[in-house]
Write a structure and sequence with these properties.
single chain; about 120 residues; alpha+beta; Nuclear Transport Factor 2, Chain: A; five-stranded antiparallel sheet; globular; DUF3887 domain-containing protein
Amino acid sequence: MNKPTPTQRQEAVTRAVTFLDVLTAHDWEGAARLLGPKLGDELDAESLADAWAQVVALGGELETRHPAQTVSLADEVLVVEQLLDFEAADLVGRISYNREGEMVGLWFLPADQALCEDQSR
């Protein structure tokens, strides 16, 4: 596996932040268009809306989004994480991209499961 370049890392962060911008604005169709082919086959606008509703049901309203960070995984997967402070819970949005820059994973997890070491507040 080749180590991602700073440019590849920044591009992944930009894509992830843009996706979360669109998702948190409740633009489900826009968010669905940003999914890669693999996720796009599994998720559509309605399922993204349902998933976000579950996140909000768990954590309450989103209050703060912290700076996004990247971590490299095996098989040339680049993961972008962004700490998300909600009213009742702190979560991490985790979005993974393959080497072609296609989104291949999307999760919302408890903040203590973050892969990035510095999830400062």
